[in-house]
Amino acid sequence: MIKIFGQKMSSKIQQRLMELHAADSLSDISHLPPVRCHELENRGGVFSIDLEYPNRLLIIPVNDPIPLKEEGGINHQYVTEIEVIAIEDTHDKKNQRRGSK
Rounded CA gap, 40 and 46, in Å? Predict the structure, then answer.
């Protein structure tokens, strides 16, 4: 990991993975900085967690079924299983999906 991301970024990735492992649900992961876990508007169901700017750890809930709120959206309180899908710069236009919201 250090060869690919460098020491500082590798430490941040390990820190975030430990925080996710220790959490009982996604609602235990702060939506405020420095972690700032939030659902990406342009990628329904994909959550972004801050690493070293501009990189983000991208995760998806894998509960079966995905816990939804009555008013729509994913219920963070009942997301107890996730999958890490990527580490990327979500601000980079080439990495963003077109036409989805």
Answer: 6
Q: How far apart are CA 6 and CA 79, in angstroms?
A: 31
Buried b or exposed e, range 46-73, using 16+ CB within 10 angstroms: bbbbbbeeebbbbbbbeeeeeeeeeeee
Q: Model pTM greater than 0.90?
A: no
Instruction: Render each residue's pLDDT in the chain as its tens digit; 101 residues.
Output: 999 999 999 999 999 999 999 999 999 999 999 999 999 988 989 999 999 999 999 999 999 999 999 998 899 999 999 999 999 998 876 554 433 33
Task: At 3, list the tokens.
Answer: 């060869």
Q: Name the residue among 55, 15, 49 with its Cα closest to residue 29.
A: 49
